[in-house]
Amino acid sequence: MQLEQNGDTPSAQAKGRPSFAWNSDSCLSYEMASHDYEEPSPTNNDLHEYLEIVEWGNRNACTPRISTRMYDNSTSAEKKYKKQKMFLFFMLGCVTSAILIVPLIIVFRQSTTLTEKEKDKCTTETPCINNGHCVTYNNTVLCICPAGYIGKLCEIKDLCIISGICHNGGTCITTRHSSYCICAEGFLGKNCKYRGLQGYQFFVAFNPKYRNITLHMSSEKSGRCDLILPSVKRYKTIALRGNYTSFDLSKYGNLGIGKISGDAHIRVVCEVFVYLFYFLTDKHGAIWKSFPVIPSKGLSNEYVIPQFKPHQKFDALSVIAFEENTTVTVNFKTARWVLSNITFNESMFDGNKLTFNAEQYEYSYISCEQCHLTGTFVNGTRPFALFFKTYIPEVIPVLPLNDFSKVFIVPQLSNLMKTLGLRIFSKYKTKIEFKDTNNTISTSILDVNNYLTTNHKHTTVVSSQEVIILFLKAYSPHTGTIDNVVPGINQYLPYYEFVVPGNTDENFATFIVPSGEVSGVRLNNRQFELSHVSVTNVRIFETLYSIFSISIKEGWHIAKHVNYVKFGLMIQGISNYQDKRHSGPYLYFAGRNLTIVTTRNN
């Protein structure tokens, strides 16, 4: 911003008034034109008017606060001209490095004694609150607010004066009407407390011999994403234009996926922040697995394998390190022998413990026979991605150990889906409580590094003394068992982006919202009508939650709460619905807060 001086008007220096200019720090500065300027004192006989400037802007601005007055005692004709010029030069305040304009409260008033009528307005109406100072001008009441308050009547608390109100690198901004946080990339919420699933780098693994993979991604900004297949040294660049994009890798033979005999792993690297989902389908188009992908910033260096399938003869896990010099240790519960693509002269196998150096971006594969990996603890010197297999075609990402939680709401599935039940794993001995919508309660004791399964037909609240991981199991005659990790209530978010894939039908978004906050939920910026929707209520401690499902169409969607209230969101539907013989359900939870770290009870 630049102030221009009008050359055909009397200069500020000639009239003995302050002059204003922009200094090198991009701040409005003022200086006296001559050393003998004196501020006139108002008298009862002379009518003096003054312009009072009070700056209430960003606390970090280079001029934290300006308070000055200008008096005028000239004749009426000249006075009118001078008033206009004073307002011209006092219009705006400081500009911060972020190009934010710091507002100035400008009060023009007479310095003579207030009339009785004006006095009455400030004494009888007393509109200013929070110790605001009442002034009048032309029979209008104005409020001058003390530090820490803003608004027409000083009714709004300036939250930016509170240290640390914006978390995770967020910036606090104050206007005349409100205070709010501008969050750093990837963080969400009123105070930037939550981290969603956006990121720059992701890792995906699948078996191309048995499954096709489709990537779905969205970004608010335009940029490029590179899909890199390290095993065949090929890559593909995708252009993002600030919207939703899908990419079916099976249609791009030049990527060399067909040359991969085992599992394929893909490194996705983007210039801009994106959400990434992927769906694994068979040759008929039925969805077998659906996942929102955790970005590399949300990965961990501690995992425990929670999956379990009875009577299995094959278990495997794989590691992808995204930093150099990453040492990984696998503490097997039982292992008769190990097959691996790891170079064993760079690893150590002692009893049931395997330690090796994971190469950056390489796929380190480990398998064991006549054993199961449930309860296997895997840790590393640096964060890494971990995948698990109990069946050759399926490669399942493992959630970090700190993603375990204590309290869950498991919603009822669509009538078109068959529910097998819940599977729960705990690294520690714990007591687990189940409560249905009729407040019927049952309990179970889960031992160290063990699992249990239970039926699930209706909405259920699951709570545990220790952190656990909870799987919701659905079933299809064609696709078999579908396992989905249920987020804890402390992992809910106030904002989600999600996708409904093509060739699907009977798609629903299931919301889990605190009952008093349902009206604030928006789906694609629209408030939905619940008068014809079935709503189920469950209580957890002092909070009542409402669970309901809304029909949705194919494509990309945004769900949020206007007051930044956290809620849960599950997506479900039927894939390949036109072919009943080869159709199957799909479901996934749209996201989770990646900044939550739940600690054990002492």
Automatic annotation (TrEMBL):
Enumerate the spans annotated as EGF-like domain.
118-155, 156-193
Which cysteines pair up through disulfides? They are 145-154, 183-192
UniProt xrefs under CDD domains: EGF_CA
Q: Which UniProt keywords apply?
A: Disulfide bond, EGF-like domain, Membrane, Transmembrane, Transmembrane helix
Quote any Pfam family the record assigns. EGF
Give GO MF terms, alphabetically: calcium ion binding
Concerning InterPro entries, the annotation shows: EGF, EGF-like_Ca-bd_dom, IgGFc-bd_N, NOTCH_homolog
**Transmembrane parts of this sequence:** 87-108
SUPFAM superfamilies from the entry?
EGF/Laminin (SSF57196)
Q: What is this protein called?
A: EGF-like domain-containing protein
- List the source organism: Mytilus coruscus
